[in-house]
Amino acid sequence: MKIKVDPLNPFNLEATLCCGQAFRWDKRAEWWYGVASGRVFKTRQTGETLEIENVNINFAKNYFGLIDELNNVFSQICKDPYIKRAVKMFSGLRILRQDPWECLISYICATYKNIAAIRHMLLNLSRRFGDKVCFDGLDFYTFPTAEDLAQASVNDLLRCGLGYRAKYVHETARTVAESPLDFARLRKKGYEEARHELVGLAGVGLKAADCILLFSLDKLQSFPVDVWVRRAVLRHYAGHFSKEFMARLREKESLASSDYEKLSLFGRTYFGEFAGYAQEYLYHYERTMG
DNA sequence: CAAGTGCCTTTATC
DNA sequence: AGATAAAGGCACT
After folding, report:
1. pTM beyond 0.70, yes or no
2. Strand C contacts (CB < 7 A) among A residues 111-170?
3. Regions of chain A where pLDDT drops below 70
């Protein structure tokens, strides 16, 4: 099935799948293969044509964020030459709408890890606790449900390479299996309230919560601050903060939660209702060009 | 090639 | 409150 992409509302499949928001996509020859919300499907882009196979078109449009009007997003977030450069470089990168449960576990696993390692952990979890699905002669695995992971022991999870995260995944899986989080309800709630409900799940701090809100719960104002975004702020947005604060940020290894809030709130107020898009462009630009 | 560094941080403990 | 340390192990240099 083919979807036409409007050049005035661009889409860049490669950047969208490579920017580190989702961890379960693989390129085999021409096609990207992925598993999302229990479906295995493939996709490729040539110019203004996006091809999808084995998936419903409305699901794909929503999943790839094609519902967002990027020209409107750009007009709102392009506040300075630096973000303009990042946007120009990766124009068409979109915020995916991932499955909230998978996103939750993914970002519990993502703490203090690099992207390659995160992919490795999530593949291990899916192989061991998900269901095998064959497609195009290749084997894929659905992401395990809360019930699946609640039944896994901490030792099982350790064998997937989760390290200290194993006990957080174990605990959060049990919590969610016991009284399922109503993600649809969280999606309808405001940013602050939804965030408050996520923080406090085992292994979910402010950063992980902001990622889950942005990548799976339609909170496009969420502005997650990781080491790369922190670097981008230090290099290009220092003028928006006091000298003392910037000096502290430079010398400290880790971010105190009050410091995190300061940076994240800056992003939300400075870039506005689509701050999450700004964050993702800055993040990707800093990682690949910095 | 070995060893060191860094990683989309959170939590426990002062 | 606010600072500090500890926590897998993989990938990259």
Report:
1. yes
2. 111-114, 116-117, 120, 158, 161, 163-164
3. none
